[in-house]
């Protein structure tokens, strides 16, 4: 019985989550936990729960007085559980060290649907191993309740940590490992192969990740329908610099249910990769290819095949995009709500006119740093896009106060206007403020405040 008690009532130390030099761990004071520092790393420790009885009479007397003064002890279990549900992973581990009652409540499986770890110094591989081991005690080797793992910015995360997640968390639905540049394709393949319910995957900044696919074993087992087995709907591969058209082809063939895809600064992607994407992923609602310098009007012609399903598009700083590409989007994607075309210097008033007349439900438009735009383009926007809430005209040198006044007189719901580095008068800015009372104006005119 005693062995069983020690097995089921052990808790990871908060030192697993906090580095040794963080508040509450300096000089070993402020906490009853122990940790070891080896070359600056935080070492995972496992401790037994707080004792139920204290032998020294003075200590026992003090604990009784404190217990009488602690109003929190009068709360029923369901109230404490509700409070604990708002705490992050590290604080839950701390609460488990307070007393036996808090220990049992802190490790309630309902509180462990999410693990969230952050920091450069934490030994995240070991932390994941210890936490999943503790959560697997009631259901050996399987964490049935864990659905979300967020370890963004934990640069010490390696493939071992992802292997732990893949093997122990079959019900995982959301995984965020942005900025963890040590993980590779193989570990990501294991996660998507062993976690069939995974819907949200963020690998932004993981420079070694070049595609998303099933492992070879999983592909053989699920053949010939393995291409439709990955249920990912949200995929963020921002700053995955090594991603190429062939990798995007693999992603599209395996992740056919994608609705949100972000490829910001994937500088090797071309129009050919977008063609592959449109063949397989016909349900995309949000797409970003900003700073993909090889994407041109031909790529936008492929994107336009999404038609009315497309609601969000970012082509910022795609220097090869002109009015021709914008016309494709405007003609076929009439339900577009958000367009970021900042830095597309080939866009003129003619492109904005076609966009305004066909995408009348636009709510957010960024056409900053487009030097060929003038008040004429703004007039078309004002007379057609009455629902416009956010408009950025930063560094549009041909814009004047007259164009802004036309916009303000027609778009009463405008909430954000960026006219930084634009030659507009104070009177024009005051006119906008008077007609769009909820509008926040970003400007560089020192006379307007």
Summarize the structure.
With 449 residues, this protein is α/β, with parallel strands linked by helices. Helices cover 35% and strands 10% of the residues. It is built from 17 helices and 17 strands.
Structural descriptors:
13-stranded parallel sheet, alpha/beta, cytoplasm, globular, repeat, disordered N terminus, F-box-like_dom_sf, Leucine-rich repeat, LRR (right-handed beta-alpha superhelix), 449 residues, 17 helices, 17 strands, Monooxygenase, two-stranded antiparallel ribbon, F-box_dom
Any chance you could write out the topology, listing elements then pairs?
Elements: H1 2-8, E1 11-12, E2 37-38, E3 41-42, E4 46-47, H2 57-69, H3 77-84, H4 89-95, H5 100-106, E5 114-116, H6 124-135, E6 148-150, H7 159-168, E7 174-176, H8 185-194, E8 200-202, H9 216-222, E9 234-236, H10 245-254, E10 260-262, H11 271-280, E11 286-288, H12 297-303, E12 312-314, H13 323-332, E13 338-340, H14 349-358, E14 364-366, H15 375-384, E15 390-392, H16 401-410, E16 416-418, H17 426-435, E17 440-442
Parallel strand pairs: 5-6, 6-7, 7-8, 8-9, 9-10, 10-11, 11-12, 12-13, 13-14, 14-15, 15-16, 16-17
Antiparallel strand pairs: 1-4, 2-3
Helix pairs in contact: 6-7, 7-8, 10-11, 11-12, 12-13, 13-14, 14-15, 15-16, 16-17
């Amino acid at each position: 019985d005693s062995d069983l008690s020690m097995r089921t009532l052990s808790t990871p130390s908060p030192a697993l989550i906090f580095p040794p030099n963080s508040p509450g761990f300096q000089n070993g004071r402020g906490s009853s936990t122990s940790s070891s520092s080896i070359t600056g790393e935080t070492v995972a420790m496992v401790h037994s729960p707080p004792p139920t009885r204290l032998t020294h009479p003075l200590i026992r007397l003090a604990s009784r007085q404190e217990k009488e003064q602690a109003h929190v002890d009068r709360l029923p279990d369901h109230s404490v559980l509700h409070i604990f549900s708002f705490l992050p992973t590290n604080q839950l581990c701390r609460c488990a060290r307070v007393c036996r009652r808090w220990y049992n409540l802190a490790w309630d499986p309902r509180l462990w649907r999410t693990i969230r770890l952050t920091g450069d110094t934490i030994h995240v591989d070991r932390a994941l191993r210890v936490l999943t081991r503790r959560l697997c005690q009631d259901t050996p080797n399987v964490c049935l309740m864990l659905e979300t793992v967020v370890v963004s910015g934990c640069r010490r995360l390696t493939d071992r940590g992802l292997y732990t997640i893949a093997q122990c968390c079959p019900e995982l639905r959301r995984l965020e490992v942005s900025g963890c540049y040590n993980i590779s394709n193989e570990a990501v393949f294991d996660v998507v192969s062993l976690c069939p319910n995974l819907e949200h995957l963020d690998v932004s900044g993981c420079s070694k990740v070049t595609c998303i696919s099933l492992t070879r074993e999983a592909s053989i087992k699920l053949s010939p329908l393995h291409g439709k087995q990955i249920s990912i709907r949200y995929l963020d591969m921002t700053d995955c610099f090594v991603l190429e058209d062939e990798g995007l082809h693999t992603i599209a063939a395996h992740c056919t249910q994608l609705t949100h895809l972000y490829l910001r600064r994937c500088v090797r992607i071309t129009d050919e990769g977008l063609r592959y994407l449109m063949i397989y992923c016909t349900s995309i609602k949000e797409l970003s290819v900003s700073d993909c310098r090889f994407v041109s009007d031909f790529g936008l012609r492929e994107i336009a095949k999404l038609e009315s399903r497309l609601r969000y598009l970012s082509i910022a700083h795609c220097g090869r995009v002109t009015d021709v590409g914008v016309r494709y989007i405007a003609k076929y994607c009439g339900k577009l709500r958000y367009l970021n075309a900042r830095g597309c210097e080939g866009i003129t008033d003619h492109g904005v006119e076609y966009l305004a007349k066909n995408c009348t439900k636009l709510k957010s438009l960024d056409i900053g740093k487009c030097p060929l735009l003038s008040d004429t383009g703004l007039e078309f926007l004002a007379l057609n896009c009455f629902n416009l809430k956010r408009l950025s005209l930063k560094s549009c040198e041909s814009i004047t106060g007259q164009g802004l006044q036309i916009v303000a007189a027609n778009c009463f719901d405008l909430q954000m206007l960026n006219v930084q580095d634009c030659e507009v008068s104070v009177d024009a800015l005051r006119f906008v403020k008077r007609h769009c009372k909820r509008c926040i104006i970003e400007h560089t005119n020192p006379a307007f405040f």
